[in-house]
Amino acid sequence: MDELRAADWRVGVATNGAVDIQRAKLRATGISERVDGVFVSEEADVRKPQTRHFALAAARCGTVLGVGGWMVGDNPVNDIGGGRSAGLSTIWIDNGRSWPPHVPGPDHVVPHARAAIDLLLLHSSYHTRATT
Asked: Does pTM surpass 0.85?
């Protein structure tokens, strides 16, 4: 996450659950200090895969949907389906699992979080070269 932020990415967490539990997890893992914003569903009674959840998470990062954002996650419906519905590009972390046949696929599939970070860094490098 530090590498993404150093490459001018805004990094956020969009999670379903209870505020106290989710924020405690983020503090315990050190993630809360490495992201620009966190949105937990209980804060506004809106859950992934609802588009509003992603809009509120983007706002916590100081941005809005529709400006080239990405959703990285491991849940085909909540993360990938919700991200796609919100207009985000998607990366599914498969953790060795097969994609469910009845669900529209993600833009990219990677085996673990490090691979997702590498893909995003590669994407930002390509985007910088293509626009300069």
From this structure: yes
